[in-house]
Amino acid sequence: MKCKIILTVFAVTSLIFSNAPAFAELFSVSVGVPVSHTLTGKDVEDEEIKSDGVSGVFIQIGVPVLPGIGIDSYNTKIKDSEIYLGTTIYNLYYLLPIPVINLTVGVGIGSTELQCEGCSDYYKKGSANQWYTSLGMSIITLFDLHLSYRSVSSKIEVKAGDANAGKKNDLSGNVMGLGIGFNF
């Protein structure tokens, strides 16, 4: 009877965890790029702000079981202007222990800044926070491809001396990214 139970448990766990690697992961590194940045906020004059492309990088480093750390650094061009929104966010994330897929959840805090000639004279540096998730699939044992979604909340205040002094531009939005992870 015990032998049947042991064989059944072994067979079931072998089927469930058949895609799990047969080695112990020491650490992982993930590198990604933003693909799109959709701005959902409005400026101080209650007009929509739209993006016209984004470029930058996402980097994450982690070890099994413990939370990992990361940084997002990207620039978003504001449509119909020569202004860029520079964003830098430091992240804390956790890779959920799910077989077959790599599901990551995380939060981050950082800053945003409007970048143009003279922007620092009119706008303060803003704070930003985000939550994000990433879904990855292994392509071979040591690598995975993943898609990420970030929900960023950010506001940048207009400096004194302007008619809108003290008001804030809402530069919140959603960022989609693609990346590759390396497990060592």
What does this structure look like?
Helices cover 10% and strands 58% of the residues. It is mainly β. It has a single domain (26-183), classed as Beta Barrel (Porin), CATH 2.40.160.20. An eight-stranded antiparallel beta barrel has the order 1-2-3-4-5-6-7-9. A hairpin with a 2-residue loop joins strand 6 (126-140) and strand 7. It starts with a helix and ends with a strand. The model is unreliable at 17-23 (pLDDT under 50).
Under the CATH scheme, which architecture would be assigned?
Beta Barrel
Beta-strand percentage? over 45%
Give the termini separation.
41 Å
Question: Could you name the ranges where pLDDT drops below 50 across 5 or more consecutive residues?
Answer: 17-23
Descriptors for this entry?
184 residues, mainly beta, Porin, 8-stranded antiparallel beta barrel, 9 strands, 10% helix, elongated
Short structural description:
The chain is mostly beta strands and 184 residues long.
Topology record:
Layout: H1 2-16, E1 28-39, E2 51-62, E3 68-78, E4 84-96, E5 101-115, H2 119-122, E6 126-140, E7 143-157, E8 168-170, E9 173-183
Antiparallel strand pairs: 1-2, 1-9, 2-3, 3-4, 4-5, 5-6, 6-7, 7-8, 7-9
